């Protein structure tokens, strides 16, 4: 169940989360360091904690409102220290349905974009993105999650260094 | 008394393109929703699912069909109401632009309606007398909100979901069990045949005293883990038991929070709204509890529980009565909350 490795996987960070609170905390730390214009492409099974991580990112970005699941509304927009665009591809069946969302405007905007179920439509994702894969731990379905971070394309080096620090502090 | 006031209601906040004509805020003369199988374009054929999401392609046909079904012309209308948020900005903009153009060219008042408030007003289409102040629970795929409404346009959010909406969890679990979409009706039917005590799923935030927020992400994960564990043990999964136990957990939380709100606010009526208002168990249990408290449960006709134009027109009628009109610079507000008209 590990993400496939290949030449393009320059750096793979893994963080093990032992609870919902810890997943939210990891998201929060990520939200604090993420630079404007970053796309976070999140994937993982139903119930893996994607929305929990997204809530943490919102918290770290200083969003005061409740960040909740955008599965139905497809996208939520929040205002923190910068704009936070929270997408969810769960309910979408075909790539065409994405056009109505005007994705490019967000991907290449000044805010932070987080997409749940991003792996459903890899073709629409921008080349520069941080992929985050969340897996349930087979020995502890209820609580433990493995979170993999995989940078794709060009990402801010300082940001990646800070992300590395988070990973080692959680180890 | 002149002519009865007819309001055209437009709704494009999410997937559905809808238009309706409602008389005096209560009588539906027509209601067209593009995703309905019965809706055919003038040139014949059912609108494909994909096209139904492209509001631009169908809005004119939906609009024409609404006027035709009502047997009225543009000149008979007394106002144009439209959902301007919350929702997807691109989708909302189609409805808002059409409503603005219509109102401007026909010289009619333009009324901007909060989509969620619209759901509450679906209850005005029942013919029941509605008295303020009242409580309302909106439960749908996208929203779970408990509201206190002092008067038209005066809404206070008492509680909302912190993660998944109730209807969303129904659909996700149904999908995981291979029961198709939408999951609500199927799970509801299955639950009727199952044992609600077979499995124990968490009731989130029930312990937080006086707090009226909801959380359904935990019960979702618990049900999914339960399915996985049972499958791994090679046990035959009793779908009816899982459905019944899951529904019990969700309904208990919704009813429990509703009861808390009733005890805090002591209103005469409680209005159910949104797609999940059609759920049999929720209706039954809520009715039992509210009757004991001496509160009347009102719920919309089933066809007006999901997104539609009639609810927007109904809300629009009351806005118009109060002179709450939108200006020509009206814009879509994707993250619209409750409160005074946003007319930036």
How would you describe this structure to a colleague?
The complex is a heterodimer of chains A (171) and B (344). Chain A has a seven-stranded mixed β-sheet with strand order 1-7-6-2-5-4-3. Chain A has helices at 20-33, 50-60, 96-99, 103-107, 157-170, and strands at 13-17, 39-44, 75-79, 83-88, 112-116, 129-137, 140-152. With 171 residues, chain A is of the alpha/beta class. Chain A has five helices and seven strands. Helix content of chain A is 28%, strand content 29%. Chain A is globular and about 40 Å long. Chain A has one domain (13-170): Rossmann fold, CATH 3.40.50. Chain B has 344 residues and is α/β, with parallel strands linked by helices. Chain B has two domains: 6-122 and 304-321, Nucleotidyltransferase, domain 5; 132-267, Nucleotidyltransferase, domain 5 (2-Layer Sandwich). Chain B is 39% helix and 17% strand. Chain B has helices at residues 49-52, 55-70, 89-106, 115-121, 166-176, 183-191, 217-232, 239-265, 280-293, 309-321; strands spanning 6-11, 18-23, 27-33, 79-85, 110-114, 134-139, 144-151, 154-160, 269-273, 296-298. Chain B has a five-stranded mixed β-sheet with strand order 3-2-1-4-5, with helices on both faces. A five-stranded mixed β-sheet of chain B has the order 8-7-6-9-10, sandwiched between helices. In chain B, α9 (280-293) links the parallel β9 (269-273) and β10 (296-298). The longest helix of chain B has 27 residues, at 239-265. The radius of gyration of chain B is 21 Å and the shape is globular. Chain B starts with 5 loop residues before the first strand and ends in a 23-residue tail after the last helix. The model of chain B is unreliable at 40-52 (pLDDT under 50). The A-B interface holds A 45-47, 51-52, 55, 65-66, 68-69, 71-78, 90, 94, 96-97, 100-102, 136, 141-142 and B 14, 50, 53-54, 86-91, 140-142, 160-165, 167-168, 172, 176, 217, 220-222, 224-225, 228-229, 334-335.
């Amino acid at each position: 169940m590990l993400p496939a490795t290949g030449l393009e996987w320059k750096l793979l960070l893994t963080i093990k989360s032992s609870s919902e609170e810890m997943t939210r905390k990891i998201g929060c730390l990520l939200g604090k360091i993420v630079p404007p214009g970053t796309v976070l492409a999140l994937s993982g099974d139903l119930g893996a904690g994607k929305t929990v991580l997204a809530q943490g990112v919102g918290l770290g970005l200083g969003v005061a409102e409740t960040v909740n699941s955008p599965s139905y509304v497809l996208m939520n927009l929040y205002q923190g220290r910068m704009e936070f665009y929270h997408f969810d591809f769960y309910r979408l069946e075909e790539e065409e349905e994405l056009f109505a969302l005007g994705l490019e405007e967000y991907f290449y905007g000044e805010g932070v974009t987080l997409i749940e179920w991003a792996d459903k439509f890899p073709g629409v994702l921008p080349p520069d993105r941080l992929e985050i894969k969340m897996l349930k731990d087979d020995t502890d379905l209820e609580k433990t999650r493995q979170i993999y971070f995989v940078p794709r394309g060009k990402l801010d080096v300082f940001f990646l260094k800070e992300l590395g620090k988070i990973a080692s502090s959680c180890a | 008394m002149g002519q009865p006031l007819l309001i055209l209601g437009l709704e494009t906040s999410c997937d559905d393109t809808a238009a309706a004509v409602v008389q005096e805020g209560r009588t539906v003369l027509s209601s067209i929703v593009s995703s309905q199988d019965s809706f055919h374009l003038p040139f014949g054929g059912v609108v494909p699912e994909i096209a139904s999401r492209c509001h631009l392609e169908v809005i004119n046909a939906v609009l024409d069909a609404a006027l035709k079904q009502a047997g009225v012309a543009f000149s008979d209308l007394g106002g144009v109401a439209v959902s301007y948020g919350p929702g997807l900005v691109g989708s909302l903009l189609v409805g808002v632009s059409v409503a603005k153009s219509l109102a401007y060219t026909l010289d009619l008042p333009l009324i901007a309606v909060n989509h969620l408030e619209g759901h509450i007003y679906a209850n005005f289409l029942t013919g029941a007398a509605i008295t303020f102040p009242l409580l309302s629970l909106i439960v749908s795929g996208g929203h779970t909100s408990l509201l206190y409404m002092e008067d038209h346009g005066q809404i206070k959010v008492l509680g909302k979901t912190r993660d998944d909406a109730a209807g969303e969890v129904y659909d996700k679990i149904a999908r995981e069990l291979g029961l198709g979409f939408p999951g609500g009706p199927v799970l509801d039917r299955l639950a009727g045949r199952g044992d609600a005590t077979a499995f124990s799923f968490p009731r989130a935030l029930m312990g937080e005293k006086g707090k009226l927020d909801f959380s359904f992400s935990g019960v979702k994960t618990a049900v999914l883990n339960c399915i996985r564990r049972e499958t791994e043990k090679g046990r035959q999964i009793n779908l009816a038991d899982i459905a019944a136990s899951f529904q019990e957990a969700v309904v208990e939380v919704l009813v429990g929070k509703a009861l808390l709100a009733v005890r805090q606010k002591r209103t005469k009526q409680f209005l159910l709204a949104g797609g999940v208002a059609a759920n049999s168990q929720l209706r039954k249990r809520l009715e039992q509890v509210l009757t004991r408290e001496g509160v009347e449960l009102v719920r919309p006709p089933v066809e007006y529980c999901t997104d539609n134009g009639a609810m927007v027109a109904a809300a629009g009628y009351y806005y118009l009565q109060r002179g709450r009109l939108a200006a020509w610079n009206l814009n879509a507000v994707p993250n619209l909350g409750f409160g005074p008209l946003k007319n930036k």
